[in-house]
Structure prediction request, 256 residues.
Amino acid sequence: MARKTLIAGNWKMNETYGEAVVLAQEISNGFYDDWVETVDVVVCPPYIDLKPVKTVFEFDKRKVGLSAQNVYWEASGAFTGEISVPMLKEVGCAWCIVGHSERRTLFGETNEDVNKKAKALLAGGLAPIVCVGESLAVRDDGTYLAYVKAQVEAAFAGIDEADARRSVVAYEPIWAIGTGRTATPEQAQEVCAAIRETLAGLYGAEAADAMRVLYGGSMNEGNAALLLAEADIDGGLIGGASLKAASFIQIVKEAL
Prediction:
């Protein structure tokens, strides 16, 4: 099955309100409408930047999707500092990252938390981008495939096939995020293939073949083409390179 490529730019905790408008405008200026036939393009700004970024793309009539970087699983209540699915939906988000390695390692997010967030997003009509990946220690001890498989199984526990098909999985080896190190195409393909195999075990081969698996470890304009050429890599979750419009646009071009 031919899966449509997805390129998502995770801005992390970068870009003030004004800077976000400038970056969104630069992306919009370099964006060609016919690209959407081949690739889905999504940006993931900080919460405070979601509305102004959406406004830029709407004004220019650009079909660039909007994603949040995190969410809480309750719809409302006394959860100071959290953001709910209805809030994200009303501001224009169609996607949301869950389980990013930085959320797991810095803020103690667990597999159970990721599962709750994914379920809440799906119930609210948003598509989760479920992040999984291993540390350098797990990679070196040789248990990384089993480790990532367990993360996938935990993230999708209790999620039915129809909802799973609306979800995306992003493989982000922790040892290759923000370090300048990148998994080789062969290393990335090995784990992405294992992710798809795990999904096939949960939902069947047809559903797994329809789902998109992204690579998210320091993909940039220099290595995107080689990574995207692999059979089980259907796009990228881009970090640092997404903060430069020219670099991000070039990665999108590599996906065409």
Summary: The longest helix spans residues 185-203. The radius of gyration is 17 Å. The longest strand covers residues 5-10. Strands lie at 5-10, 39-44, 65-68, 95-98, 127-132, 168-171, 212-215, 235-238.
